[in-house]
Amino acid sequence: MGALSCEFVMTPAWEADPIVFRHSRYYPAPSRGAHTRDMDKQELGAFLRSRRERLRPEDVGLQAGARRRTPGLRREEVAVLAHISTEYYVRLEQGRAPRPSADVLAGIAGALRLTGPESDHLHLLAGTAPNRTGLHSRQVRPSIAELLHRIPTTAGFVMSAAFDVLAWNDLAAALMEDFSARSPDDRNLARKAFLPRATDGETLYGISDAAEFRQSVVMELRTASVRYPDDPSIRALVVELRSGSGEFARLWEHNDVQPPSMLTKTFHHPVVGELTLDCDVLHLADRDQHLVLYTAPVGSAAAANLAFLGALGADGIAAR
């Protein structure tokens, strides 16, 4: 690795940080507006550790060696791969380092083999990527609300960044539940997944991939908590789930941020039995919401059963 260029910075911050020998790459010029929020040093360190520990030396072209005592890569190995000093990388994991530049973060992302969503999350934690401020949106765009009722053969609903069901059509109510009979707090799919009421039973709408869905909830909520650090409702939801569900708390500590793709979903419906549907999730970027659509191939048995549910409606199903 080539020699590193260095500079001494005369700053009152010495009193808070005794190290005054600072690499210029870790201090990008503040006037360019690249920093959009404070750096979350503790979360950044935890995320880096979790990504480093999941890698094996052979994953990055290194020899494992016979005397490896720690899981995953060593910190010095990540530093070499990222072309930064070991001391600085160690301080990043310990939550004691200054903010890295975008170039340094790109080097670390490459060294740790981060996916696109993981790299975005890294930048958000470091405060070097734009993030939404204030509260997450719960207002559904009128055109989207109208669209839900123009697709009567598709079960559709809109979900907020905090997993609140905000709008739905009749077929979604027949397939899942009558959301209008629930309070807004009880329309939260994260709570339903991890803190089900006694009347909900053991399953989440009878879906066969409930475990995968719960994993996806944790990943999406972790990202939302970084995008909306000042949103009290998201903070409160995460605290409630971590304290009320051991599974949520365990998954939260994994620091994963890339949910698995869900192309199909199988429901075990109390009226029509097993129903396998195509699942499409469309991101509504302007309000950071998701439009979830369940459809069945034309002419299939699933399509016939879905049509039957639509004819019954939520009230008809409740009466059976």
From TrEMBL:
It comes from Williamsia phyllosphaerae. This is Transcriptional regulator. Residues 72-119 form the HTH cro/C1-type domain. InterPro entries: Cro/C1-type_HTH, Lambda_DNA-bd_dom_sf, MLTR_LBD.
